[in-house]
Automatic annotation (TrEMBL), chains A, B:
Residues 648-676 are annotated as: Disordered. It comes from the Bacteria. Pfam families: Fer2 (PF00111), RACo_C_ter (PF14574), RACo_linker (PF17650), Raco_middle (PF17651). This is ASKHA domain-containing protein.
Length: 676, 676
């Protein structure tokens, strides 16, 4: 258990051997010497009617000398046995624990309950090597290889050249007992010895890293237990070369050393972050043997030292799209000298290895329902599909969702407004800020917010405030603030030729926080780009609705799905089926780190995914224009309407008149801008 | 022709395709575009009764536009055709030329007429890559790989990481036409793209190098034509750390940075030598894509950066014995950034990759006769065997054969005596020196030798002078100079308690050149060690005689087999079957460079060779003592006696007496010394 596999074995068979012959993965480093303690199992006692057997600790051999020594020296939890030493004497139900530090088969994601089955690319193998013999003058390394074949079945091992000069001293230091770190990724590739250690080396780590334009996030994981030892993040230092991706590409184009400087900066940041997670986890960075990276295409290229200029212009040609694997030292990542590095494949010029990671994590292709997966950043990456077909695209949402281009916008930080409600009767707002639990209309809010002040509106709250303005009738479905309301509400204030909504008057020294007509236009443009991209993929799939929606990325974690749908960022869907999945790209990297089968899985899937280039689709412009309206000019939102009272929709008319053509042409300009 | 393979093909089949389907190797870089000119063939015209066909140039398609363009631009020898363009129209006998620069299938060894069939690890493949397409957003590298699979059949290509950042600019510079350098060694390993060049790159080179203790020798070879472009040598700069191998091991043991200094020195010398052969051949060192090295075990270890201390003491443990393959840059060899480096396997702690190279070159295991292969240096490496069994050992001959430990000995250089004859009647010598054609008793010798003088005796002449002294009765079969002869010959001179033979009185300022009793003892010790080793292997094989003898190395090239046999360096054998084969180790390296099948061949053979450690064999001492006599105390030399009048042999007695035990015990000390 829990695999449920069963078999019959001769009395005296070690449980570990029985597990292996059933194809049940139980870790072991020492090769059955009862010294590493990785192979723990537990006997379930009782009458198992389902299996028609009685399982009892009487049916397993008592602890022998070796196992008792292990228990004495290293300690063994109650009921736990070492499966390499415990032998089958009768009927048994055996539990392979899934949750312990020493022998966890699985890791638990922060954001979900999903478990990752382990099949890491790195395995630690202890062997006792024959001493040199003049009659059989095989070299030290060659006898090591022979023993790794004999004890562990490794054939045709290749050797990382860096440690060849050290083999003889390591063998002698370990008194001929050594642990080899073996790396094998693809089954068609020959395995590599990537490290060698005197005696028993009972630990090996890996990192999974997502290089975002703004943030670099990393997990440090034990490859032997699957446990996430530390997770951390840092700012991408490339920000000093340009806030967004396109400005970084421009920097490369305009500065001869720009590419090199940015490559150096991001590799340095990754190395610093490795130092940080290692310090947090109490791990030596030289015990990291495997690294998996995901990134958007431009970060991916810069990290690998590739000029990203081609990605800044049609046809958005990737220098390399497939998965890559080489020595970490090839690109100056400072971990074990023999560590390998794997990058997930990129899906297209605008849909990177990060989207591949998120796709691996959420697995639309693993299920029958139509899943929409969106990762909103400066570009929104959109994947839509199910078991039979997956399509992907990116859409240029711009930075509005991140609070940029918004008059009172700011990044998420203490003092930023993160929640907003507007009373539809009085049009009065209430809001919450980051760092304070109380709503602004509750007693004590002003006092609690005094240290930070109320400084602006963060990305998630912009969605809410615009959606609430729409629900309360302040703005029309076309996104125009109704100036007539200025007569009845002091919250509607004139602002040149348009109107604004006053969210907060600003105390002494604090800014006055308003939502302007321009702010609403910026959000409309962004959400229209996203929705048009989604709609395009739905058309490719021939579906009118999606079954389930996954919001990846930080933005998705903070927005309320209801408001996202009211605004028409995402198509109509049962609200319970809209889920934030956090850094799904990083989770995908983690999966690829812990199980090399997931690498093959996503490599294969990326080859199958159909890539749609929105700029080349003739109806993108019309979809974009329709999506400028709230929630949409043409699409109904029946499931949303069941849960939220939406304003009555204007009849779709084509009356002409002065105002409409002017707005239309403005929308068209915006659509062109979004496509450029 | 010349393979003799034949087949039937549809009219219109290109000759290149026909050759390939028959398994006949015809080079091609451009992939049938008639631009590289590598695939030349020739039609043999006439009535071929043996094949029952009439072959005629009328049966091959006339030159098309592409082939004519190649002929116009690059030139095509008369009767030559490009097999990619020439199509079969009727019966043809096709000759694949073996000897041209542009299309040599083979290379000719300097020392023999043997040809090496080519199957290099590196292949150059021109492809035209699809331009980027937004609808199919595969990366540049990925489309390159796809085209290499489509046009050339390469599957699962790995990529040398160093050029990934350059792929996009190379493709664009070549206007999407590029040549990939592909390296595949073992069939079980995945092939690697190791370099990429815009347009057609129609050349690729390799080096084969033998790192000897004294000399480093190198061939520079075109991997596409098989032509040896340049061959050269240089002194091993490690000589400054110690003349012989053991003094270099001592240097490592006594100096903390000794190993590193010697590794650096030899790698620098190799890099300098690469510069030299490249200058000679007019080749850019960055066009070298493959390197094969052989060396004795201590040089092998030092070159790879491995501490050789273990090789200086029992059990003479090699750190690595198997063949290795990695990037040339891993050990700082300055060639193409993507070049691979292969080292042949070592046979045992004293029998290195150089002996493996010589074994590959001479191939005792490829034939039925019993072949003795000896490479004489400070250690003699000895290989004995045939198709069914091969045994190998080394024997500590010491430096006497190289002129060291000899009172008038010197290295081979102008002025050194290289040939000696002694008149058995008068005991007067005549000799020749390096740099002068005349013998010393010919008119004009003194004048001709004036510039260099006569400065000493080189290694090959020491063999001759001792053998001639024996043949002329000056020394007994025990190697003792007969003092009684001093009465009748002024050439026999007293020298303390022993006598010497005066070879040359020395003109003004020149040294007096004599052969002392000690010199003869040194030669006896060296030749006894060699012969005892050979005898031990003969005993292992259960043979009384060998069928053929190969002398590898510089020493073997200069000595006269007759004198070597008279002295009893080598066992009795038909003198016509004793051949010098020059630097057979280097030839073996060349074979492994030009044909990767030879790598598998020698890897497999080295695994089969039985290694004999002379120091562990109980009867080595007796064999050594027997071999102190000239030619041997117990072994008859019947075949030698047919061609050379040997002095009458003393009856083998065991009389005791004063002299014998004393000499015996001295010989035993010598035997112990030789084994230590």
């Amino acid at each position: 258990m829990p695999s449920g596999k069963r078999g019959r074995f001769p009395v005296g068979t070690p449980v570990l051997d029985a597990a292996r012959s059933l194809g049940v993965y139980v870790e072991s480093v020492c090769g059955g010497r009862a010294t590493c303690g990785r192979c723990q199992i537990e006997v379930q006692e009782g009458n198992f009617a389902k299996h028609k057997i009685v399982s009892s600790n009487d049916h397993i051999s008592p602890k022998g000398a070796k196992e008792e020594r292990y228990e004495r020296v290293r300690g063994l939890p109650e009921h736990r046995r070492l499966s390499c030493s415990a032998m089958i004497l009768g009927d048994l139900v055996i539990d392979v624990p899934q949750d312990t530090v020493i022998n966890a088969q699985t890791i638990r994601k922060a954001a979900s309950d999903r478990v990752i089955e382990r099949n890491a690319a790195v395995q630690m193998c202890y062997v006792e090597v024959d001493e040199p013999d003049m009659h059989k003058p095989l070299g030290d390394l060659d006898r090591l290889k022979a023993m790794l074949e004999k004890d562990w079945g490794w054939k045709d091992l290749l050797v990382a050249p860096h440690f060849i000069p050290e083999v003889q001293s390591i063998l002698r230091k370990g008194n001929w007992g050594v642990t080899a770190a073996i790396h094998r990724d693809m089954d068609s590739s020959r395995p590599f010895i990537i490290g060698l250690y005197p005696g028993l080396k009972n630990e090996a780590y890996g990192i999974a890293c997502d290089i975002g334009s703004t943030t670099i996030a990393m997990h440090l994981v034990s490859l032997l237990s699957g446990r996430v030892v530390a997770s951390s993040g840092t700012s991408n230092p490339q920000i000093r070369f340009g806030e967004d991706l396109m400005s970084r590409v421009s920097y490369v184009m305009m500065n001869p050393d720009g590419r090199e400087a940015m490559t150096k900066a991001v590799r340095q940041a990754v190395n610093d972050l490795i130092g940080k997670v290692c310090a947090e986890g109490g791990v030596d960075r030289h015990d990291i043997f495997d690294c998996v990276f995901v990134a958007n295409p431009i970060m991916h290229h810069l990290f690998l030292g590739i000029d990203p200029t081609e990605l800044g212009q049609a046809p958005f040609a990737l220098a390399v799209s497939g998965a890559l694997q080489f020595w970490a030292s090839d690109i100056e990542i400072e971990v074990s000298r023999g560590a390998r590095l794997y990058t997930l494949p990129c899906i297209a010029g605008h849909v990177g290895a990060d989207a591949a990671g998120a796709t691996l994590s959420e697995g639309p292709y693993r299920q029958d329902r139509m899943m929409l997966l969106v990762d909103v950043g400066t570009n929104a990456e959109i994947v839509l599909g199910n078991r039979s077909r997956v399509v992907a695209a990116s859409s240029p949402t711009g930075p509005a969702f991140e609070g940029a281009e918004i008059s009172s916008g700011q990044r998420a930080a203490p003092g930023a407004i993160e929640r907003v409600r507007i009373d539809p009767q009085t049009l009065e707002p209430k809001y919450r800020i980051i760092g304070v639990d109380k709503w602004s209309d509750e007693d004590g809010f002003e006092e609690a917010s005094r240290t930070t002040g109320v400084t602006g509106i963060c990305g998630s709250a912009i969605i809410e405030v615009v959606a609430e303005m729409y629900l309360s009738g302040i703005i029309s479905e076309d996104g125009v603030i109704d100036g007539a309301l200025a007569a009845t509400s002091p919250r509607i204030v004139e602002n040149g030729r348009t109107f604004s909504y006053l969210l907060r008057e600003g105390q002494a020294g604090e800014p006055r926080i308003t939502v302007t007509q321009n702010d609403i236009r910026a959000i409309q443009l962004a959400k229209a780009a996203l929705y048009a991209g989604v709609k395009l993929l739905m058309e490719k799939q021939g579906v009118e609705a999606v079954d389930t929606i996954r919001f990846a990325g930080a933005f998705g974690s903070f927005i309320d799905p209801k408001y996202a749908m009211v605004l028409g960022l995402i198509p109509d869907c049962d609200l319970a089926e809209v889920k934030a999945v956090g850094n799904a790209a990083g989770t995908g990297a983690l999966m690829a780190l812990l199980n090399r089968d997931h690498r093959r899985e996503i490599e294969k899937e990326v080859g199958r995914i159909e890539k749609i280039e929105t700029a080349l689709e003739p109806n993108f412009q019309q979809l974009f224009i329709d999506a400028m309206a709230l929630p949409n000019k043409v699409d109904p939102f029946p499931k949303l309407a069941e849960q939220v009272k939406l304003p009555a929709r204007k009849a779709v008319t084509d009356t002409g008149g002065d105002a409409v053509p002017r707005r239309r042409s403005r929308d068209e300009r915006a659509a062109r801008r979004a496509r450029s």
